[in-house]
What does this fold into?
Amino acid sequence: MIPIKAVVWLANLLILAATGAEHVRQLEISEGVPVGTRIDFIGDGASPDSGPPYLIVPVTSTVETDLSIDHNTGEIRTKVPLDRETRASYSLVAISIVSGNNVEVIVKVLDENDNAPTFPVAVMDIEFPENTPRDVKRTLHPARDLDLDIYNTQKYNIVSGNINNAFRLSSHRERDGVLYLDLQINGVLDRETTDSYTLIIEALDGGTPPLRGEMTVNITIQDVNDNPPVFNQSRYFASIQENATIGTSVLKVTATDADADENAQIEYFINRRQSDKDNMFRIDSSTGLIHVNKPLDFELKELHELVIVAKDHGLQPQETTAFVSIKVTDVNDNQPTINVIFLSDDATPKISESAQPGEFVARISVHDPDSKTDYSDVNVTLSGGDGHFGLTTRDNIIYLVIVSLPLDRELKPNYTLNVEATDNGNPPLRATRTIDLQVTDINDNAPEFDQDVYKANVMEVSDPGTSVLQVIAVDKDEGNNSAISYSLLDTPDTHSGWFRIDARSGLVTTRTHVDCETDPVPKLIVVATDNGFPPLSSSATVLVTIHDVNDNEPIFDQSFYNVSVAENEPKGRCILKVR
It folds into this structure.
């Protein structure tokens, strides 16, 4: 129990302080200083009548628990370690017992770099499709730092895991003071090369040395169907006897896909449009195992060439092909057979006249129904073609007809080639195949006029539209390459504007009235252009003689003559000459 006299005395003192002058004292102390560190004195000499001893009135609730204040000297010390992030300032009123004046003391706790940046989560999982474009970004959780200004988060770094610099960081500070963080694509992502990344990202403040915090970002690269299936070999070879029963296994093809999940699931089928149209074989769509589907006949066909397609199950499926050559074996007495596949765009026997030596014309495969051994028992030769075509092979199995000499359709549009296959029997048997090969046109010939210089005549009184002459040009090419259009070359030193030409027929007519007195022999340049790509053209000269007509009356050099004659002039004397 406080004595009544003390209560009365304290009440009077407060009343006195309320009426006294107030002085504000601003003090500063860094957070984290040792306990007992002197902050300062309440009095600063500015108010000599406000000296100790003091009555302390806390304004901030934690003044008495965090600060030690000597009532007699006015010295203020720390009682506990100060933490700006918990309490940024303290406020109290010190009342001088002597004078009754009061001093408002504000102690500001200065920030120190005692807090490291901290991410809200230790691990973050994100995903990117592998076809994500460069510079696409994902926002990551930013680090928070309880410190202020330079001691707050200043930058982010990728510490490790950034294989081939696939990612980069960018940051920006918002009004709330937080340094926000974005992860951006820095290169090309390829799940088949790297399907995941584990990035260690650090946040650093501006202290010296800086404090840091870390977060792990697990990045999963999502698969897209960017890889086609790949066969383990591009061509397969197998042989089977012609008496093999339906369902007999022939061989197995295998393809793999570097993608994942549905994008890597493969199904197989035979391209019936390009091969095995008679369904002699079938393939298991899941395993790639090829089986006999119909009875085989060695005498009808010894070599079956299949185009096998492997297609994945992607949303936009990709596919690839492989070739399977299946040889049917038997002993028989049949002559060799020849199979020709033409390598033109529509698989017909033709070759462009622009083909260079060495270019392929056709693919020839031969087999001998009587042969017990390899195709090397059959000798294949090519004749015809005037030396413009040849035959080549690497394995005596597949032969290629190639161009040997340059071609010119305008000189020879067609060739007849003879392929002969001879076995090694005794006596030998042979088979022949005739190829009627068409040489297709390219636009390698410009139109040619039947004359270099044309001469024509026209009367100068001819009306516009009068026919002058018709020029004719021909093009040795064919089709669009030989379609010709005519035009007149407009030159400033001629009177070509007097004439026009029909673009299709080559008929030259007058456009306007012509004038012999202006130009008696206008010179026209006629251009013939074909419809090829690129178009070719040539020109010819047309000399038009304009025949004069009496279209100009005589004109005196004067309209009035004045002369005087003496009355005694003799007869016959010249008195005037007019012109």
